[in-house]
Amino acid sequence: MVETDTPNRVAIVTGSSRGIGRAIALELARGGHHIVVNCKSNLGAAQEVQEEAMSCGVRALVVQADVTVEADVKSLVEATCAELGRIDVLVNNAGVLQDTFLAFMSEQQWDTVLDVNLKSAFLCSKHASKVMAKQRWGRIINISSAAGLMGDTMRTNYSAAKAGLLGFTKAAARELAARGVTVNAVAPGFIETDMTAEMPVPRKEQALARIPMQRFGAPDDVARLIAFLAGDKAAYITGQVLSVDGGLHM
Ligand code: NAP
């Protein structure tokens, strides 16, 4: 077991088979948290994250669950409690893009993006916060986006979902503060993952031109902030939105 001031804390990271979620899961594992790795479909990738987490000396579980489906979310929370005994940290990280111009956006593109990026945080927080409230200790961290703060073209669905997460964060922070549970949001800018790899080159160039630091971030840049917010040193921080974006939004 690694040296830590957070022995036996348990963290669920949704969408942690890849990208930012993977980096968060491994950073929390390095800090001594037992980890629940969640994915929708990439079970092999999730199992690799599980093995890497376990090599840090902590326990790790893989739960395949679609976080837009309440029955799946209940199973995720129940499996965590059954196997690891508690839930201290929930990182609502799962997300998708379905980019297109407003005039051409289908109802399905709107609904899918709202469900994966916003409804999932409601469902996971609803079920995990019951456990945290009983423990009188918890951390919920919602992964929003610079798009939620500034808006982004071809992303009315995604920008609305990520802005919705900010209102959700503040309301939940007020509700859960008396139970010892903090709720914060992190708004990454452009981070090198599969999600940004799909961006067409001209859009990437436009994005780079708007970033004062003139580069995309790495998943670990986000993960280190999450680890801080998940720990005891962030005890008096709640209802906040913190950007990790090279100065994109200020
Ligand atoms: P990514 O590389 O595309 O990974 C997405 C993750 O979400 C995968 O683990 C995927 O699982 C999981 N997922 C998708 N739908 C799911 C569902 N219904 N149920 C459970 N898991 C689901 O994305 P990323 O770039 O790391 O982004 C992570 C978060 O950061 C997202 O919320 C995203 O909006 C946000 N963000 C990213 C950036 C960026 O520049 N990358 C910027 C701002 C905010 P599978 O592997 O099984 O598909």
Strand fraction: 5-15%
The rounded distance between the terminal residues' Cα atoms is 40 Å
Residue share in helices? Answer: 40-55%
Number of helices, where a helix is a run of at least 4 consecutive DSSP H or I residues: 9
Trace the largest sheet across and list its strands: 3-2-1-4-5-6-7
Q: Quick check: average pLDDT? A: 96
Please summarize the sheet with the most strands: 7 strands, parallel
The coarse overall form would be globular
What value does the Rg take, in angstroms? 17 Å
The structural class is: alpha/beta
Write the layout of secondary structure elements.
Blueprint: E1 10-13, H1 19-30, E2 34-39, H2 43-54, E3 60-64, H3 70-84, E4 89-92, H4 107-135, E5 138-143, H5 146-150, H6 156-176, E6 181-188, H7 194-197, H8 201-210, H9 219-230, E7 241-244
Parallel strand pairs: 1-2, 1-4, 2-3, 4-5, 5-6, 6-7
Bound molecules: NADP nicotinamide-adenine-dinucleotide phosphate.
Please tell me about this protein's structure:
Helix 1 (19-30) crosses helix 9 (219-230), helix 3 runs parallel beside helix 4 and helix 4 (107-135) packs parallel to helix 6 (156-176). The protein has a seven-stranded parallel β-sheet, sandwiched between helices. The longest helix is centred in the middle third of the chain and has 29 residues, at 107-135. The N and C termini lie far apart (40 Å). With 250 residues, the protein is of the alpha/beta class. The protein contains nine helices and seven strands. The chain is globular, with a radius of gyration of 17 Å. The protein has helices spanning 19-30, 43-54, 70-84, 107-135, 146-150, 156-176, 194-197, 201-210, 219-230; strands spanning 10-13, 34-39, 60-64, 89-92, 138-143, 181-188, 241-244. The structure holds NADP nicotinamide-adenine-dinucleotide phosphate. The site of NADP nicotinamide-adenine-dinucleotide phosphate has 32 residues, from helix 1, strand 2, helix 4 and helix 7.
